Amino acid sequence: MSNSHLFMKSGFVRAPLQNGVGRYVPQLQRIVLKFCKTHGGSRGIRDFIEQDLVEFAKQNPSVVVYLKPRRHRSPVAVAEYLNGDRVWMSLHQKSHSEITKWIEVLRTQQGDVSATRLRKYQFTDHPSIQGPWTPFTFKDPELNVAQLPDPKFGANDRLPMTATDKLRIMFEKQKISEDNVKTGE
């Protein structure tokens, strides 16, 4: 066993902020694109900025995008995540399509997890090969795309009557009895 793990920061395998349980929280907080306006190695990043950057910013309103022109330097993308990680990526001599793919990779990951020594909350001599159980383990996948409430996934008539429904029924009964008194029945 090597001692390389001694110099790596350690962390737990977990979804930050219980990400994916309830709602999805994008982890990319900020991206800084550094480039040269004239250097040939920055051509791909300049094309990305001209053609796709506005659309990227519209599709990802939670990500702050900074453009930092620098003279006679290679293009670089620096991504900062909610967990404090910073990922630095050289974009020198990359084409427009390659840069689009790498920006998407930076957007979808949750920081530099590869440089982390993984730790676990639990330990067992006989680990399960099936993985941990969650409340969503045996749910019907069709439920992911269903428009709820749907009688197919549970009848709504079994729910207890709400206070608003009770008041509405009481009001209707009172109105009917008042109408009967006025007409003399």
Automatic annotation (TrEMBL):
<feature type="domain" description="Ribosomal protein/NADH dehydrogenase">
    <location>
        <begin position="37"/>
        <end position="110"/>
    </location>
</feature>
<protein>
    <recommendedName>
        <fullName>Large ribosomal subunit protein mL43</fullName>
    </recommendedName>
</protein>
<keyword id="KW-0496">Mitochondrion</keyword>
<comment type="similarity">
    <text>Belongs to the mitochondrion-specific ribosomal protein mL43 family.</text>
</comment>
<dbReference type="InterPro" id="IPR039927">
    <property type="entry name" value="Ribosomal_mL43"/>
</dbReference>
<keyword id="KW-0689">Ribosomal protein</keyword>
<dbReference type="GO" id="GO:0005762">
    <property type="term" value="C:mitochondrial large ribosomal subunit"/>
</dbReference>
<dbReference type="InterPro" id="IPR036249">
    <property type="entry name" value="Thioredoxin-like_sf"/>
</dbReference>
<dbReference type="InterPro" id="IPR007741">
    <property type="entry name" value="Ribosomal_mL43/mS25/NADH_DH"/>
</dbReference>
<dbReference type="GO" id="GO:0032543">
    <property type="term" value="P:mitochondrial translation"/>
</dbReference>
<dbReference type="Pfam" id="PF05047">
    <property type="entry name" value="L51_S25_CI-B8"/>
</dbReference>
<dbReference type="GO" id="GO:0003735">
    <property type="term" value="F:structural constituent of ribosome"/>
</dbReference>
<keyword id="KW-0687">Ribonucleoprotein</keyword>
